[in-house]
Amino acid sequence: MKYLMLVCVDEHVEEDADPEPWITEMESRGIRQTGNRLQPIADSTTVRVRNGEVLIADGPFAETKEQIGGFDILECRDLDEAIEVAAKHPAATFGTLELRPFWSGA
Amino acid sequence: MTPDEAAATAFTEQRRRILATLIRTTGDWDLAEECVQDAFERALSRWPAEGVPRNPGAWLTTTARNRALDRLRRDANHATKLRRLAVETDDPNDELQLLFTCCHPALPLEARVALTLHTIAGLSTEQIAAALLVSSSTMAQRLSRAKRKIRNAAIPYRVPPPELLGERLPGVLAVIYLVFNEGYSGRQQLADEAIRLGRLLRHLMPTETEVRGLLALMLFQHSRARARADEHGDLIVLEEQDRSRWDTTLIAEGLTLLTGTGSPYQLQAEIAAGHSTARTAADTDWPRIVQLYERLGALVPSPVVALNHAVAVAMADGPAAALPLLDALDPTLTGYYLLPATRADLLRRLGRPAEAAAEYDRALALAPTEAERRFLSRRRRSVEEVVPPIVASVDRLRTRSVDDGHDGRTH
């Protein structure tokens, strides 16, 4: 089962958390397929098409403090394994990790 | 036994096991439920003509399994499920795995309760909706959303491994106790189901201390079900209950489950056992109950435990000793009717009826059920009656003189 793990953190909180050991472990277990950190939300752009017109905006700036700061794609046996993997990520202690299963077509 | 009775007995005893096996082997909850239902319907139509099979459980299992095979064969996409279903047999762990899946922490709590009642206890969507006071369509949605999440998010169908069990078992016990408490205020069927689940879990995990503790706790509380309300459904408090109406079989069963290990459900069960074994209310060993509440409060600090502790202190050392404990609770338990109700009771016993009456009013405004309001009103009337008559008549005189003054006719 494939999961997208969204790493949501408060951008204004400086946390000294090195994800390298986690990445090494999860890649050696064949769980982490890929992933990356993202630039801050200030650098993101929103695109919408309404009535044939392309609407472009800065943002999105949501009300929540935590924003998506990175993502990982995981291949796990089941949700329990994905939870175990997420709980080991250093950001779990100060941010929030969201596990979203991939659409399976069913 | 008539064929109908045999089918009904088989349904009660075997449904859960057959369903659990089919869910495990097909991984499809809806399909499994339909096929089990179908097998029982076939039993009802065939057994009267063909006779009851020698092993009704095996007949039902085979019929349900064949039905599932038929259904899956029609759809080529299900080749994997079909292979598993064809080769796998019963596993004694199936029911336990199903219970842990229904209570997985990735599901919202209300869905865990609903799914457990539906899948393990076998209640219909309508029955659960009625018991939990939501509409049938809301309940149907809640159940199908939970089943969908189990499938799409790949919630595993298994008993968690030992390293996760300590973390997951309390959640399962909490769901069972929640079901029991839903049944406590009159919805008897839920209390019965919770006890059945408790016994099942105890049977499947005989050495788990807290499984025994929870079952014991429920048995002690349930042993008083007949004595807890009068013929109008009004509450009868513990000290006024007719102890000859307590169910001694349940109490005896509960006592065999106590392990003296001092874990949260065990401690609560020991407190309940303290009440259950006292021959009269006056015989209750209150100092020991105070002690047990202190240990429980140290383990699971909660304002409700602290409130019960205060009540026990009032019984052991007198109401005056307990009043300051209630005052300390005030900020944390706002809106909980038992706090003013308890204070009212202490003030009543201290001979301060006017203050007691005011606390009863506060409790009345917060009481959740009609039966509780009737109980509180009755208690409130009893303190009105002991308001010293001399004070009452002085008040009345004062009122009259004021009225008379306005009236201007007396002088």
Automatic annotation (TrEMBL), chain A:
<protein>
    <submittedName>
        <fullName>Transcription initiation protein</fullName>
    </submittedName>
</protein>
<feature type="domain" description="YCII-related">
    <location>
        <begin position="14"/>
        <end position="101"/>
    </location>
</feature>
<dbReference type="InterPro" id="IPR005545">
    <property type="entry name" value="YCII"/>
</dbReference>
<comment type="similarity">
    <text>Belongs to the YciI family.</text>
</comment>
<dbReference type="InterPro" id="IPR011008">
    <property type="entry name" value="Dimeric_a/b-barrel"/>
</dbReference>
<dbReference type="Pfam" id="PF03795">
    <property type="entry name" value="YCII"/>
</dbReference>
TrEMBL record, chain B:
<dbReference type="InterPro" id="IPR036388">
    <property type="entry name" value="WH-like_DNA-bd_sf"/>
</dbReference>
<dbReference type="Pfam" id="PF08281">
    <property type="entry name" value="Sigma70_r4_2"/>
</dbReference>
<dbReference type="GO" id="GO:0003677">
    <property type="term" value="F:DNA binding"/>
</dbReference>
<dbReference type="InterPro" id="IPR007627">
    <property type="entry name" value="RNA_pol_sigma70_r2"/>
</dbReference>
<dbReference type="Pfam" id="PF04542">
    <property type="entry name" value="Sigma70_r2"/>
</dbReference>
<protein>
    <submittedName>
        <fullName>Sigma-70 family RNA polymerase sigma factor</fullName>
    </submittedName>
</protein>
<feature type="domain" description="RNA polymerase sigma-70 region 2">
    <location>
        <begin position="13"/>
        <end position="76"/>
    </location>
</feature>
<dbReference type="Pfam" id="PF20239">
    <property type="entry name" value="DUF6596"/>
</dbReference>
<dbReference type="InterPro" id="IPR013325">
    <property type="entry name" value="RNA_pol_sigma_r2"/>
</dbReference>
<keyword id="KW-0805">Transcription regulation</keyword>
<dbReference type="InterPro" id="IPR013249">
    <property type="entry name" value="RNA_pol_sigma70_r4_t2"/>
</dbReference>
<keyword id="KW-0804">Transcription</keyword>
<dbReference type="GO" id="GO:0006352">
    <property type="term" value="P:DNA-templated transcription initiation"/>
</dbReference>
<keyword id="KW-0731">Sigma factor</keyword>
<dbReference type="InterPro" id="IPR014284">
    <property type="entry name" value="RNA_pol_sigma-70_dom"/>
</dbReference>
<feature type="domain" description="DUF6596">
    <location>
        <begin position="168"/>
        <end position="259"/>
    </location>
</feature>
<dbReference type="InterPro" id="IPR013324">
    <property type="entry name" value="RNA_pol_sigma_r3/r4-like"/>
</dbReference>
<dbReference type="InterPro" id="IPR046531">
    <property type="entry name" value="DUF6596"/>
</dbReference>
<comment type="similarity">
    <text>Belongs to the sigma-70 factor family. ECF subfamily.</text>
</comment>
<dbReference type="GO" id="GO:0016987">
    <property type="term" value="F:sigma factor activity"/>
</dbReference>
<feature type="domain" description="RNA polymerase sigma factor 70 region 4 type 2">
    <location>
        <begin position="100"/>
        <end position="150"/>
    </location>
</feature>
